Amino acid sequence: MALAIILILCLPRKYVMVPLLLTIFLTPAGQVVVLAGVHFYVARILILTALARWAVSGRSSPLAGGFNSIDRFFALWALYTLVVTSLQWMLQPLIKNLGDFLDAMGGYFVLRFLIHDREDVTRAIKVLALVAMIMAPFMLNEQITHRNIFGLLGGVALEPAVRDGRIRSQATFEVYITAGVFGASLLPLFIWLWTSGKSKVVACLAVVSSTIITLTSHSSTPTLAYAAGIVGLCFWPLRGRMRAFRWGIALTLTALHVAMKAPVWALIARVDLTGSSSGYQRFLLVDTCIRHFWDWWLLGAKDYNKWGFDMWDLSNQYVAYAVTGGLLSLVLFIGVISSGFSRLGTARKRVAGDRGQEWFLWCLCAALLSHVVAYFGIGYFDQIKLAWFTLLAIISVATVEAAPSRTMQPMFDLDLAPSHSAT
Fold it and tell me: Phi/psi at 32 (nearest 5 deg)?
């Protein structure tokens, strides 16, 4: 961590993300310094260091493309969450709330500052690939030795969790689900890295590592996120007809809700890809949240843990933001996601015909979809949040950099175009 701090302060801006991301993802989540009751986690210390670097950088326009719609929704969500939780609990958890606010706002906008152009985007993906390549062998080792090597440092358990006889590897993450989602959500980015023709060996190893991380976590949520990324990529040939597909999904869900004896969200209870999943508990979370709408819609609720069995475990990000922050918190969070898809769709249409740029933007859509699906099974609370922030920062830059090939060179080279004779 000390070495990372020095590098963050001294390296040229374009290389700062390397020690920042490597140290955050490869340090156990529970590593913390407590001063006067204030918890300074490794990620928080490095974010503060990067913010200091940003403050003294003297850049007149620190964010690529300016303050965009994703930035606005994210900032409003973070500010509103801080205000609402402070109103609910008053001064009791104020220090924790301020820490969470710093992690969110600081972490996201530091990455927006560090990722400026096409080279930074590629560099960020390669750093994440390196992290995955380091994590995968250690998670595989947990399956063999039943010991988490990172647990020797403290901050995570030395012995991995076991359910129904299956070891759930977690590496540096606080729980196995977030570790698995980390690997699963990166798969579309690694596939793009391979198809781009650059760093093919690294890309192939990263794809294998992503798969190992997902499988060794032995959890349905990462598996679904992994599958969502693949399904998103498979819709590439239908990229011009997605509006009809979205309406088809909406109408199908409506018809099922009318025809089924149970509500349509009861389908969540049927999800069990590992034989030991908690799909029924996820269904109860959604169902109980909907039934208690009038209890939380304005400013959230404090006693949601008393609503039913295991309601204290908000392992659904949408439910978590709803019951703790109210309806507006949920709307703003969905606004971040919607804005990401909207910007990617608009940028893809802008570069229509340049299949290299279109493919990259589509891979970002698949990665975003992977997180959207993962949010149904877990609430982000450890290093996985930084993976989410990194993707949002990449989307912001990619949608700004995308431009028709007749006015500038393609942002990302990918030879997917048909031959001249075929054209």
Answer: -150, 145
Taking residue 211's Cβ as centre, other Cβ atoms within 10 Å add up to 17
Single pTM value for the model? 0.92
Separation CA 48–CA 218 (nearest Å)? 34
Alpha carbons within 13 angstroms on the beta-carbon side of residue 243 total 4
Whole-number pLDDT of residue 411: 45
| Alpha carbon distances (Å) from 155 to 41, 43, 370 | 10, 13, 27
7-26 confidence digits (pLDDT tens): 999 999 999 999 999 999 99
Is residue 39 within 8 A of residue 99, CB to CB? The reply is yes
Element housing 161 (H / E): strand 161-163
* Contacts by residues 278-287 (CB-CB < 8 Å, ≥ 24 positions apart): 278/315, 279/220, 281/309, 281/310, 281/313, 281/315, 282/315, 282/316, 282/376, 282/377, 284/308, 284/309, 284/310, 284/311, 285/310, 285/311, 285/313, 285/314, 285/315, 285/316, 285/319, 286/316, 286/319, 287/263
The CA distance from 168 to 90, in Å, is 38
| SS3 assignment, position 274 | coil
Contact 326, 84 (CB under 8 A): yes
Rounding to the nearest 10 degrees, give the CA dihedral for residues 214, 216, 219, 221.
-10
pLDDT band (50, 70, 90) for residue 422 = very low
User: Coil, helix or strand for 35?
Assistant: strand
Question: What is the C-alpha separation between 38 and 40, in angstroms, rounded?
Answer: 6
The residue whose two tokens read 């989307």 is 395
Cα 137 from chain centre: 22
Residues comprising the chain, all counted: 423
